[in-house]
Amino acid sequence: MSSNERGTWRIFLMFFVSLFESFLKVRNFSKKIIYYPIIDSTNQEVWNLYNTNHDISNIVIITDNQANGKGRNHNKWHSKSGSDITCSFVLKEVFPKEQFNLHALLIPVAVIKGIKNFLSIDLSIKWPNDIMYENKKIGGILIESKIQKRTILNVGLGINVNQLSSEFPIELENNMISLQEILGRPIQREPLLAYIFNELDILISSLDSSSIISFWMDYCNHKNKEIQFMNNNKLVRGMFKYINDKGQAVVKYNNEYIAYDGAMQIV
User: Fold this and answer.
1) What is residue 89's DSSP assignment?
2) Which of 151, 168, 156, 142 is CA-nearest to residue 74?
3) Superfamily of domain 14-219, CATH level 4
């Protein structure tokens, strides 16, 4: 391979911010876009800017290579350099305090709707915000927050776009899948991310909590299925039933209905 060919390949792997912006139609967030070819963690970079008194409102951080991506429950998020979507963006609190959990439902609904509109793929959600395809994980969301006058949400988004199964870590290859593997062709990341953000902007503009819950339940892949969850410091089994108006899971356990917002596993 010639040096020119290698250069062309490297450019192809870059995320083009100008192309992303050309598809973007948002009004409520993501107006300041920062791109890093490589970074330790996009979520951590948001907090780094916050801690140095930068105005992080409406900021989006995108990278092609995230060296130490953060997942929920202190897990690490694996991504392939130049192949996947790895970004973080800042939202101001849009739901009242008593419905704060709805933020964790809002984001995956937007992701699924955006991917559906761009690629015509039907995906599902596993509590609270894992993006799934036939019981394999295709994306994850990490939401961190800090309280100012209004709560600031630091939303980390990782989507397996063009990664191949052979490129996943061995311990993950049976549980993960990418959009390219579903469709059998490479996917352009810039319009895909813009479609997701555009859907999120539409949902924020309408801000109908009952619709968010209804969409989430439509996409849920474990309705009326047995789950494991912690109850009074014990791992027990129950049945996932629905989402209440506060954004909590409602689980049937010992013939009682329990509002729950912790981690769970599908049995």
Assistant:
1) E
2) 142
3) Bira Bifunctional Protein; Domain 2 (3.30.930.10)
